[in-house]
Specification:
The chain has 374 residues and is of the alpha/beta class. It is 53% helix and 7% strand. It contains 17 helices and five strands. Strands 2-3-4-1-5 form a five-stranded parallel beta sheet, with helices on both faces. It is globular, with a radius of gyration of 22 Å.
Length: 374
Amino acid sequence: MFFFKDVIGQEEVKQRLLQSVDSGHIAHAQLLCGPEGIGKFAMAIAYARYIHCTNRQQGEACGVCPSCRQYAALTHPDLHFVFPMVRVEKKKRICDDYLPEWCDFLKEHIYFGLDSWLSHINAENKQAVIYGEESESILRKMSLKSYESPYKIMIIWLPERMNDTCANKLLKLLEEPYPGSVFLLVSNAPDRVLGTIRSRSQLIEMRPLSSSVIAEALQRNYGITGQDAVAVAHVADGSYLRACESLQLNEENKLFFDYFVQVMRLAYGRKIKALKGWSEEVADLGRERLRRFLAYAQRMVRENYIYNLHVPDLSYMNREEEQFSTRFAPFIHERNVQAIMKHLSDAENDIGQNANAKIVLFDLAIKLIMLLKS
């Protein structure tokens, strides 16, 4: 685990990273970005392992040197992690307080999303953040002399979750890095990362995976038939994580689909009282799940708009979603699709900024009434 061979596809990026190590030109700050579930974190930790390996062989870490054995146990003294977390009174204040849980989680997951991490630590509906106090821990770790390698590596997962205090202090470290410092920032939303941090980082864009690459990996890792693998890969929209999740019973997506159908039908029927009740019920999802629902709603609006083009290869819906879209898609068209997407995106951002969920959702529902009738 944690080798380049464990990263599905992304051969171009692999070669670029390998070359940077083999040529001795390792940028001190690198921003790996792209959609969720395409292997960015897996690539970052495989890259870190390759940098630290003392016996590299044919574009891969050896797996047997002392450094590699430490990576297998996630105990390498020159490897550090920063990730979103939730505070628990005085017990859990910085990422190191969650390090045992984080290491256990990584040993079981190489492709994962924020929701699975939060579920692992029983965060319930609390919002995950990289807090300002983390900056002191980052500074202390990167200012110390490395123990076993010329490089001290810090992997920062989801830097867009940093609060302003932490982001600004990280910027100072990127502007004047300590010798041998390597920061690997792994982001799903680079546009939400502080602009000055982006400008001081080498951008490494990772693209969605092809359906054929996903299907091949599903057959190899799950032993499913080629036909089933192709069908799952088609609706995964380039995300191996999404493909894996679709193989499992996903009650959350079913719930999101039901809420999406409800709000669209109620908005079309102008049932304001029922929409108020819908808003209050959905608000109880909690902020993190609510943001995932609004992201799901944006995907469904986009898919319904594309459905009108009558090009099946561009459609990424499951059977139940597609059945609903045969009737709903005509109501999503050139005159309203951009406005609907904007209002859904704005609502997602407002929830992330701790706005009152019931008010945000009811306001969204009222706007949908006008747009679906346009």
